[in-house]
Amino acid sequence: VDANIVPIEGKEPGEQNLIVLLYDITEIRRLEKVRTDFVTNASHELKTPITALKGFSETLLDGAMEDKEVLKQFLEIMLAESSRLDLLVNDILELSKLEQKQVPMKVEKINLIEAVSSTFQLVKQKAEEKKIELNILEEDKLLITGDSSRLKQILANLINNAVVYTQEGGKVEVTIKKENEYAVIKVSDNGIGIPEDEQDRIFERFYRVDKARSRNFGGTGLGLSIVKYLVENLNGFITVESKLGLGTTFIVKLPIQSK
Ligand code: ADP
Question: Histidine kinase domain: from which residue to which, for each copy (predicted)?
Answer without folding.
Answer: 41-258
